[in-house]
Amino acid sequence: MVAIEAATAAAAAAEDPIRAAEAEAEAKVEVDLEGKGGEEEEAAAKRRNGFNQGRRRTGGRTRRADREDSVRRTVYVSDIDQQVTEQKLAEVFSNCGQVVDCRICGDPHSVLRFAFIEFADDAGARAALTLGGTMLGYYPVRVLPSKTAILPVNPKFLPRTEDEKEMVSRTVYCTNIDKKVTEEEVKIFFQQLCGKVSRLRLLGDYVHSTCIAFVEFAQAESAILALNYSGMVLGTLPIRVSPSKTPVRPRSPRVMSN
């Protein structure tokens, strides 16, 4: 009984880290319940299980609160001139408050680029809304409250070699993907419109209502072409396409324990 439940917990951990704690807690409830002192062990296991569930709920609330706070501190800027860099954009908006992150997305050769700017506090984001209509380059920008937070880039995922930098030039980052859309459908969508897809990673979880994807093309020209399809509907939602800052690395092989 113990071996079976332990194996179940290990398998769940290997397959899905989100379920790992749940599987472990469930296993503890059933271990040794039929042995000596089964009733006492069952009560203790239920207490542990209840504690773990409460801790998971608390952790989930904390992450959700952090994400909502980040959204309140972020503005969405559109109609950005192709000559405007992230550094320049951050400098302009720093007059409203401390800028902690700035991300320009979209085709670098198009005036239809957009950006997300996150401030250190809500006041900075509110002040930034007054910059709507400001001329940056040849076009007045539009500034609106953002509906999403800026996803941080983990430094360990950034390109480390020249080969990986070349891979990044062939890769786009897609957001707002309908959860009903499969990885194969994303591949077909981009392959028919832009060119051969050499690698693709579709990612989603139980927290966010949409998925994201990293699409690596065989040719850099295909990645540039893909940027033009930002706003096109895939499934039931308009996707957002921007240059990727990270390469799509092969999945690491899983090591199964005996």
UniProtKB/TrEMBL annotation:
Residues 46-62 have a biased composition (Basic residues). InterPro entries: CID8-like_RRM1, CID8-like_RRM2, Nucleotide-bd_a/b_plait_sf, RBD_domain_sf, RRM_dom. It holds the Pfam family RRM_1. GO terms for cellular component: nucleus. Its main location: nucleus. Gene3D superfamilies: 3.30.70.330. It comes from the Eukaryota. Signal peptide: none annotated. GO terms for molecular function: mRNA binding. It is found in: Nucleus. CDD domains: RRM1_CID8_like, RRM2_CID8_like. The keyword RNA-binding applies. Residues 30-68 are annotated as: Disordered. Residues 73-148, 170-246 form the RRM domain. This is RRM domain-containing protein.
